[in-house]
Amino acid sequence: MSETSTAAASPPHATLGHRSPILRVIGIAISAWLLLSVVAAAWFGLTTPQTGTAALVQGLTLAEVLFAVALILLGSIVEGFGWGLSLGTRWPYTRNIVLLMLRGDPEAAHRMLATTVGLIALALAVLNPVQSSFVGLVLVLVTALFGMGTLYVLAGRAPAIVHGTHGLLAYLVFLDYLVALRLPGVSFPIYLEATGALHAVLLALFLGGMVTGQRGFGKPIEAFVRPRRPAQWIFVLHGLAALLVIGTLGWMEPLYPVAFTLALLQAGVGFFVFHAVNLKPRHPGALVVLHQSMVLLITSAIVLQWHW
Question: How far apart are CA 116 and CA 14, in angstroms?
Fold first, then answer.
């Protein structure tokens, strides 16, 4: 029996993902990223011209940005290596979640890191009661609730829009704290409304999450010429949104030259992800992590206005 037919025969509620050397290497890299994030945040807080609580807020904000990056990448590992239902639909914790994390369960690590991001968001709201802190805290809480919803999407008991919204919210958390770090005092909702380049990226991101949710756990999109299944129609919309990203960043290339180049490369990565999902629908692998990494780079290049 094939991988696809096995997944269809028994509704997934608790399914372990795929272990591989690549997964271990990525896991070690993210662990190193988290350690370096702590060091960088401490250094930033200690060397900033500000003192006292203001310096602590600066350090925590940088930590929140870097942890949000790791959290998104862990989510891509969960998806790429089929660990989304390793804890079933139980949320947020299980009795032995720390032990499972130490044994290398990416979903357990994802939830524990999400808790850390939530605690930092709460600390920032207390220490620095400004709009960006409260917006960030609310976004973290709502993202967590939609994270619970993604488990039911994977189990076939919730619509794909929940999955797409969860991904969108995760990036809004990242962007809120990145803008707070880059442009202190600027209202994130106003910044987001005024930055048209992000609109196209977030639309493509949302539709990409919907593709994952609509195809279902361990199921391929399947190659097609004319779309017939809902997942294929959403994939077409996702592709059109990707073209919109390229067109938008191409039009604004003087402002966002690095982001435009990354968007062109991302289109190629997306092509390979599509084929990986069809070849190994339960665990398409590291290409999913690369795909998500490119989105993080594109959004960062827009906010930070990277130039060559």
Answer: 24
Give 122-164 pLDDT, tens digit per residue. Answer: 999 999 999 999 999 999 999 999 999 999 999 889 999 999 9
pTM for the full model?
A: 0.93
- Per the domain annotation, does 10 fall within a domain? yes
List the domain range (segments joined by +) for residue 195.
3-303
Q: Is residue 308 part of a domain?
A: no
What pLDDT, on a 0 to 100 scale, did the predictor assign at position 13?
59
11 pLDDT higher than 80: no
